[in-house]
């Protein structure tokens, strides 16, 4: 899908992505599966990185590339064992984080579709390390 040039502005720019990512990390911190995967002393940095990435992807400022280079998300997630369970949990928390954000259903759908595709692409572990037996 091509991202319309003004999508970032249309959804509310910086404010909207900050809100989504902040609400997301609020939940990640105490999540039994995802929480332990993140750097415990750099929550603000993690929040910032995801926010910059999403802002850039949707047509906002290119701070992510300037600070982090090419996203290479599969490579950057390679040392976190991500099975279906962790990917589903990530999406579940993101779904909650995106509730009540003031965007249209079409905009919501577009952002969500991208999240789904990336989460799926990041699954790198089979057997699933978090599957309950
Ligand atoms: C599938 C489940 C996922 C898990 C378990 C996961 C886990 C993680 C972890 C533990 C980090 C390191 C935190 C940090 O220090 O930045 C990270 C970074 C990151 N994740 Fe994910 N993630 C998932 C899905 C996603 C998705 C769907 C996206 C994009 C839509 C995404 C985008 C990013 C970005 C941009 C970074 C920062 C990369 C960097 O510049 O270092 N992740 N993720």
Automatic annotation (TrEMBL):
Protein's recorded name: Hemoglobin-like protein
PROSITE patterns: GLOBIN_FAM_2
Keyword match Cell division: no
Annotated Pfam families: Bac_globin (PF01152)
Organism domain of life: Bacteria
Organism per entry: Corynebacterium callunae DSM 20147
Gene3D superfamilies given in the database record: Globins
One function term, GO molecular function aspect: oxygen carrier activity
Leader peptide range in chain numbering: none
